[in-house]
Write a structure and sequence with these properties.
The chain is of the alpha+beta class and 295 residues long. The protein contains 6 helices and 21 strands.
Length: 295
């Protein structure tokens, strides 16, 4: 392991350690910055293309052959959260969505409670406009800080981006490193009550005891992916230790030693069967990276 100004560079790092599915082959180079300045210096002098950005790995499938080039991980770093103004939170991209929700609630600010139902980092939430319970990330955004591949940082307003359902365009090959989230002053106890209620609902309806990526597919217009997968009689289907959850059909869980190829096979099977039966093309919500393993 080599150190660069407080950052850490690892060679051949198993990506199963950094993916909530607990699968995935090694990254050629894996970099965890200590500070934003570390990251800028690394990009300018040490990064080897291609560069793949990840956060907490909660919405990520890494293939068994691993990842070429450099993986930069912002999960559990660049994770500061602070009040920038009375109703504006500044949060680093590595900050967990759940932590942001709790910070806001304790500060008596409403609007971020839905983030308590998202297990990823703010950077990932920004990249895909993650949402839950009718709320979405970009509904809170006032500005974002991005970092370009040459290490240059830039602050951009919400208006600079085209935002849709689980989709964000406008940042190109830049990475989100922070955001300003505008919230609404409210009664602290009421906000905390809503936050806890949503967390309890999540625990009661999702198979949280097993490694997964959360929801695998986006909900199609006017319907729910879980309903379609269940109607296609796919609950409980297994390839190896990868299983379509019997508790929530839009979850694929790792029951022990699943491989990425088995998870991908279940994703493909669910898409095929739902399309064959209902003529609906399910779109994956998770991101897939890396190489297929050599046979």
């Amino acid at each position: 392991m080599t150190s660069f100004i407080g950052g850490r560079l690892r060679l051949g790092e198993p990506m199963s350690r950094h993916c909530s599915w607990r699968v995935g082959g090694p990254a050629d180079r894996f970099y965890l910055p200590g500070t934003l300045e570390d990251l800028q210096d690394f990009l300018r002098h040490f990064a080897i293309a291609p560069i793949t950005w990840i956060g907490l790995g909660s919405n990520l499938l890494v293939r068994d052959g691993g990842v070429r080039g450099t993986v930069v991980c912002l999960g559990n770093t660049l994770d500061e959260i602070a009040l920038a103004e009375a109703s504006l939170i500044r949060a680093g991209a590595g900050a967990g969505a759940v932590k942001i929700a709790h910070f806001a609630a304790k500060a008596g600010l409403a609007g971020a409670e839905f983030l308590a139902g998202i297990p990823g980092s703010l950077g990932g939430c920004l990249a895909m406009n993650a949402g839950a319970h009718g709320g979405d990330t970009w509904g809170l955004v006032e500005w974002v800080d991005v970092l370009h591949p040459d290490g240059q940082s830039q602050r951009l307003s919400r208006a600079a981006f085209q935002v849709g359902y689980r989709e964000v365009r406008g940042h190109g090959d830049a990475c989100f490193v922070a955001a300003g989230l505008r919230l609404t002053p409210a009664d602290r106890d009421s906000v905390m009550h809503r936050l806890r209620a949503w967390q309890e609902r999540r625990a009661a309806t999702q198979p949280l005891e097993w490694p997964s990526c959360g929801s695998v597919f986006r909900n199609p217009p006017g319907d729910h992916a879980a309903r379609l997968i269940e109607a296609a009689e796919l609950k409980g289907m297994r390839f190896g230790d990868a299983e379509i959850s019997t508790q929530h059909a839009n979850f694929i869980i790792n029951r022990g030693t699943a491989r990425a190829e088995e998870i991908e096979a279940l994703v493909a099977t669910a898409r095929h069967e739902v399309h064959r039966r209902f003529a609906v093309d399910l779109q994956p919500e998770m991101r897939t990276i890396g190489e297929v393993a050599d046979v």
